[in-house]
Design goal:
Number of strands: 11
CATH architecture of the largest domain: 3-Layer(aba) Sandwich
Strand order of the largest sheet: 7-6-11-10-9-8
Number of domains: 2
Distance between the termini: 55 Å
Helix content: 25-40%
Low-confidence stretches: 107-112
Order of helices and strands: EHEHEHEHEHEEHHHEHEEE
Length: about 250
């Protein structure tokens, strides 16, 4: 298994060194130990970091919460707080950075330890596992988007309320709507068709795939183009419909 690289952000050098020894005992690799938020951001950018252990009270003008927010948003690196601060205001501020964990120092200082080692290891392992899963999901989403943008059919996907969640480039060209403008709109406002049956009936939460036949698509500028295609329900593991996928193509 590849080494897990961890950045320690702790203004107390003794605590940072002790933490480093514990992490290395668990088999992790500490890439750097820094004492300020500014240094943490710089190291997160320059080094190969998988995880940041962040104190809140730091040297310099920036505290750990502000630094964590920047690191999380800019580099997508998960952060675990290890801090003696556990008041409600601090915790609420920390939550906004979407941390992967919050370990309180002062609750276990009576044991002459900076933190509970088992709790730390468990939190790290859960964080790393969740981060790997999230990366795979993001990679799959990018792959799927690339595929959908390179097929010849137009594709529009909605949620259970029929609000548009995705359009590929072909759908943009045929409807005259940009995806960025269409997101959140009812699909019937984007995909306006005239046919022998009711548009409302076709664009409904049917439990089976519904064909689009002998239909005329009216684009955003009012131009009419004959199309055919399908409206397919998206179902979850309990067979509950979560949305729709509409695929269509111009009839030449």
């Amino acid at each position: 298994m590849d080494k897990v690289n961890i950045l320690i952000v702790e203004d107390e050098r003794i605590t940072a060194t002790h933490t480093k020894k514990i992490l290395e005992k668990f088999g992790y690799q500490v890439t750097e130990m820094v004492g300020s938020g500014e240094e943490a951001i710089s190291k997160a950018e320059d080094l190969d970091v998988d995880l940041v252990l962040m104190d809140i009270n730091l040297q310099g003008k920036m505290d750990g919460i502000e630094a964590a927010g920047i690191i999380r948003n800019r580099y997508g690196i998960p952060v675990i707080f290890i801090s003696a601060y556990s008041d409600e205001e601090t915790i609420q501020r920390a939550k906004l950075t979407e941390p992967s964990g919050f370990i309180v120092k002062e609750a276990i200082e009576v044991l002459n330890k900076p933190f509970d080692q088992n709790e730390l290891q468990t939190t790290i392992e859960i964080t790393l596992y969740r981060n790997r899963i999230e990366k795979r999901i993001r990679e799959h989403e990018r792959w799927l988007e690339a595929v959908l943008n390179n097929i010849s059919d137009a594709v529009i996907a909605t949620d259970s309320l029929r609000q548009v969640k995705f359009m590929n480039l072909v759908a943009e060209n045929l409807t005259g709507w940009f995806e960025a403008d269409a997101i959140g709109m009812d699909i019937q406002d984007i995909f306006q068709i005239l046919d022998t049956e009711s548009t409302l009936k076709k664009i409904s939460m049917e439990t089976v795939t519904v064909p689009i036949e002998n239909a005329i698509l009216i684009d955003n500028e009012g131009l009419k183009n004959p199309i055919d295609g399908f409206i397919t329900p998206i179902k979850d593991e309990n067979d509950k419909i979560e949305g729709l996928v509409v695929t269509f193509r111009p009839i030449k």
